[in-house]
Amino acid sequence: MQHHNFIERKQYMQQLRDLKDQNIIKVISGVRRCGKSTLLMMFSEELISNGVDAKQIQFYNFEDLDTLSIGDIFQIHTHIKERLVADKPNYIFLDEIQNVKDFQRLIDSLYIKPNVDVYITGSNAYMLSGELATLLTGRYVEINLLPLQFTEYYNFIISKSPNLSKNEILANFIHFGGMPEYIKQLSINEKQADLFAQSILKTIIEKDIFQRLNITNKHDFNKIVDFIFDSVGSYVSPRSISDTLRSNGTVVDKETVAKYLDALCEAYLIYKVPRFEIKGKGLLQTLNKYYVVDPCFAKVRLKKAVLKDRSHWLENMVYLELLRRNKEVFIGKRLNMEVDFVAVDYNDYTSYYQVAWTTENPETLERELASLKAIKDSTPKYLLTTDVDFNPVYDGIRKLNVIDWMLKNE
Questions:
Q1: What is the pLDDT of residues 250-273, one digit of tens each?
Q2: Are 229 and 301 in contact (CB under 8 A)?
Q3: Could you give the C-alpha distances from 145 to 40, 123, 293, 365, in angstroms and in order?
Q4: Under 8 Å between Cβ of 198 and 225
Q5: Rounded to a whole number, what is the largest CA-CA distance in the chain?
Q6: Could you give the CA distance from residue 78 to residue 118 in angstroms, rounded to a whole number?
Q7: Who contacts 61 (Cβ-Cβ below 8 Å, separation ≥6)?
Q8: Distance of alpha carbon 218 from alpha carbon 385, whole angstroms
Q9: 287-306: burial string, b at 16+ Cβ within 10 Å, e else
Q10: I want to staple 235 with a disulfide (CB 3.0 to 4.6 A). Which of 151, 287, 296, 300 is the partner?
Q11: Claim: this prediction has a pTM higher than 0.85
């Protein structure tokens, strides 16, 4: 079952290779249609090409009615158990498992069997909260899958259109994003691709949010989605959103706004970035920023060119890239200065990042550097822009071209 049109996801494939045959459940989470099933298919193909017999692999997609018709967890359990190959490793892939009632017990039971390696995917963080977390504490590792990163997108586009410049590819990426299927459809027809993005968005909102949370006031909810998509990279709080909506004639109290924002985060549609007080080394409870998992959703939702607000969407893209490379990402605050991002890597090293479309104007350069200069420690500090100058260094702050920074895979 060779799928040659897959876009290679090196980073995630390597994580799966490293975790293979380890006694831990692999949970691949992420927004709908960002490539979770494809990743598992690529991984199962790799297992086969490395000599694993196809009988040792079982693949179930629980969005598929044929699969769901196997029955409840007891019937699914029996179905899987009867097909296990004795005395050899068995790889069990359970796609969109959150559609099965009490799936936690099914996974737990498979996990304790000898020679069974379990991989599950889900499009809602809700699946990892509550029961699953309690039942499987310390027994699962989560890989949060994001849409394509710039390197993956760049390599895919260059293979199709070798004459495009790096800047053109960047502009497209900021505008269209990295949802694999969206990009494939885009190469055929933009209108078709937009309908596809709209349908994913509709499914997420209807199935993963309205049905699960029993939300009846869809109008208010949709107003909040529009608001968040339109204020990427701006400071907001449930209260500030509630106040803005009220002034426009929509009354939603701040508790409801907070609940709706949580639901959008749980569906991996938006990511909430807390603020971090650099001097006091503590998290601030007030204003946060939200970034969208992919610009294609904002493009089809807001019906306007994302590039009009290109600085914020560049920031959105840098945030997602930092998230892929690091353990934690915050927004930094020091006194009255703001730093776009504070990134803490897996070795607990911290770096600071400021993002601007261009700092060719000396005043802009001064303003962008000021907040980094205010931090008086020896932590690495970077200013990322689309400018092409020779990586100057100002008082220890390195200015880098954002495209080079993204293509230079850590």
A1: 999 999 999 999 999 999 999 999
A2: yes
A3: 12, 10, 10, 34
A4: no
A5: 70
A6: 16
A7: 37, 67, 95, 96
A8: 39
A9: ebbbbbbbbbbbbbbeeeeb
A10: 287
A11: yes
